[in-house]
Amino acid sequence: NLSARLTAAAAYIPKQARLADIGSDHAYLPTALMLEDQISYAVAGEVVEGPFEAAKKQVNKLKLNDTIQVRLANGLDAILPEDQIDCIAICGMGGTLISEILDKGFQKRQLTGKERLVLQPNVGEQTLRKWLAAHEYTIVDEAIVKEDGKIYELIIAEKQETVPHYTEKELKFGILLSKEKGPIFKEKWQKELEKVEAILASLAQSQSNQEVKQAQMMDEIALIKEML
Length: 228
Ligand code: SAM
Known about the structure:
This protein has nine helices and seven strands, in the order αβαβαββαβαββαααα. By secondary structure, it is of the alpha/beta class.
């Protein structure tokens, strides 16, 4: 049984996809999808020995060795041309790390632009959206879910014929999320607002001269308030 977070990611993986799950850990995502006959082939990539062994164990236990390849590799090095991967999932890492993995894969041409990207950054969503926009990806879908009191965003991207232009605001708050303004979105940014306001208050109390920082925080507060 997948967690709410990975269930949300699974919903964006096309039927019968050839999936590469990078940073797969226990290979929960590809094994669950394969058992449900939702995907036709998968590569589970892991760069750390422990999680790599855990992924192998899980795939062996479920007897999915024929259709799921577990590989010890850094980022998109796990993908070989003959895998004919058409969907790449990178979940449960920071947005900066996901961007770096994509960037290396882009430079090494492991990322062809034909794959759907199913990305779930834990933090640093803006950094990730900026990378996608700079590399002419269209953000085709977004979701926001809550699990064990934590809020996670999902970003689904594809290359399309037309190159979109995103505003700074969209890159920060999400292209679709900022339009929908759902309850979890509002909760996330309300919390963020309270956090920035608390920091600003403590800065005001300290004697040091931090006017630039204070001004930045007031801008940030105004920006978030506009969204809520
Ligand atoms: N994707 C799973 C999920 O969402 O539940 C596991 C998330 S786990 C927190 C992140 C995993 O990514 C770790 O097992 C870590 O070893 C792996 N990882 C980090 N950097 C990586 C890289 N450059 N290439 C492959 N795996 C990586």
